[in-house]
Amino acid sequence: MFKIIMTLSLVIVAISTLLFVYRLVKGPTTPDRVIALDAIGINFIAITAIISIVLNTSAFVEVILLLGILAFIGTVAFSKYLEKGEIIENDRNR
Question: Is the entire prediction scored with pTM above 0.90?
């Protein structure tokens, strides 16, 4: 019963990831696309965690942490680019 529930949750998360990919491609505005990209990263973390639970291993913990860090940094970088137009400021005289 537990494997069936985990498989069903994996299918649901995979379907939601596909819907977020659609929003990423079709999104009407750039902030919508950034939010969809962040949600795809979160869904990849969920998929990795569910697979780790199904396989009964803790080998994917580092992968989950790496995906979380990359998703966070990507979201912050895109948000800063949308706000200021540049990610790294070159003016050091401030």
Answer: no
**Beta-strand (E) ranges in the chain?**
none
Among 50, 42, 37, 16, which residue's Cα sits nearest to residue 81? 37
Residue 76 has pLDDT above 70, yes or no: yes
Q: What angle do CA 19, 31, 92 make, to 5 degrees?
A: 140
Q: Could you give the CA distance from residue 15 to residue 5 in angstroms, rounded to a whole number?
A: 15
State the CB neighbour count (10 A cutoff) for residue 3.
9
Q: Which two tokens stand for residue 65?
A: 């942490």
CB 41 within 8 A of CB 25: no
> What tokens were used for 87?
């990610």
Structure token pair of residue 82: 């949308």
